[in-house]
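Methods — Computational structure assignment.
A single polypeptide chain was analysed. Its primary sequence is given first, followed by the predicted tertiary structure written as structure tokens.
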Amino acid sequence: MASRAEAVAATRERIARSALRLLMECAYDDVTLADIAATAKVSHQTVLNHYQSKEGAALAAIELLRGETEALRTSVRRGDPGHAVEVLVEQYERFGDLNVRWAMSAERLGRLAVLLDHARAAHRGWLEDTFAQALPAAAAERRRAVNALHAATDVYTWKLLRRDLRLSRSETIRAMTALVRGVLPGDQP
């Protein structure tokens, strides 16, 4: 039999996962506390008891997303543009539509909009770490290269290729890899 603490943790997790599922399907403005409660099979008051608000439940959902994203990104082979793009496309296939919706509604997200700044900074940090050996040493050149890598690997680039231009997943990977290789000097694997 599960302890009270385990039951509470399981309920919190179920609510956060339900919020994430809804946010993956709908715009933030269209998700209600009642929707989250119904999806989690708990009462409206239970959601409030655990997260105090829709914003709190959304923050918990985004934390789950961040954890899954970090787990994917830690698997990348450093310095390998093709593998780095494959990992990113896998992430975007799972969460890209949510990321794009979230970014496009930033002005209506209030305090949650700061999460976009954190996500962009984390992506830049990941790019700098992943391609550290290939980046220019001079600060200005390095910054320009990281900016170009960011544009080549951003979720909007994935959306353009995959959703707007309707490229296949493999075509999207090839196009984004070509963009990344075009930024990096010399021969890359």
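Note: Residues 75-189 form one domain.
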